[in-house]
């Protein structure tokens, strides 16, 4: 049996960790390969210089988030992936490049119609051809 490839983007919020609970309810440990992903949104404008320290801190923060999530998926086949850029663009690029079967994301907790599922989730939904599962908070 070929394992399903699942991408789980996570941010620094506890709310994003709900995606892991969903994954564990839907898939047995031997059914999936999971890639946990964190995107540090370091945006450079007007030739602004970002120090090496800031990049190192952002990478460490991402690694900490992914390590915490990995512990919750003990027994699953897990890969961790950190990226820099716009979250939705990086998620879309990774999902296409590595040919994932599904993306599991937690919806935004921001208020208002435009923020119902979140701008990152919304952009991913509109621009991918694969299954996207949106987990309520």
Give the topology:
Layout: E1 4-9, H1 18-26, E2 32-40, H2 52-72, E3 77-84, H3 87-97, E4 102-106, H4 119-127, E5 131-135
Parallel strand pairs: 1-2, 1-4, 2-3, 4-5
Protein name: Nucleotide-binding universal stress UspA family protein
Family: Belongs to the universal stress protein A family.
Pfam families: Usp (PF00582)
Brief sketch in words of this structure:
By secondary structure, the protein is α/β, with parallel strands linked by helices.
CATH overall fold name: Rossmann fold
Low-confidence stretches: none
User: What does the largest sheet look like?
Assistant: 5 strands, parallel
What does the overall shape look like? globular
Q: What value does the Rg take, in angstroms?
A: 15 Å
| Spatial ordering of strands, largest sheet | 3-2-1-4-5
Q: In CATH's first tier, which class applies?
A: Alpha Beta
Head-to-tail CA distance between termini: 32 Å
Structural class: alpha/beta
SSE series: EHEHEHEHE
Please tally the helical runs, counting DSSP H or I stretches of 4 or more residues: 4
């Amino acid at each position: 049996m070929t394992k399903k490839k699942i991408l789980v983007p996570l941010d620094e919020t506890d709310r994003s960790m709900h995606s892991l609970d969903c994954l564990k309810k839907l898939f047995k440990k031997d059914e999936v390969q999971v890639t946990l992903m964190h995107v540090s949104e370091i945006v450079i404008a007007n030739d602004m210089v970002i120090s090496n320290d800031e990049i190192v801190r952002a990478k460490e923060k991402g690694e900490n988030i992914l390590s915490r999530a990995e512990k919750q998926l003990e027994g699953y086949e897990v890969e961790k992936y950190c990226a820099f850029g716009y979250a939705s663009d990086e998620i879309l690029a990774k999902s296409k490049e590595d040919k994932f079967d599904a993306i599991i994301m937690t919806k935004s907790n921001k208020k208002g119609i435009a923020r119902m599922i979140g701008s990152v989730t919304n952009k991913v939904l509109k621009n991918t051809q694969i299954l996207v599962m949106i987990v309520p908070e």
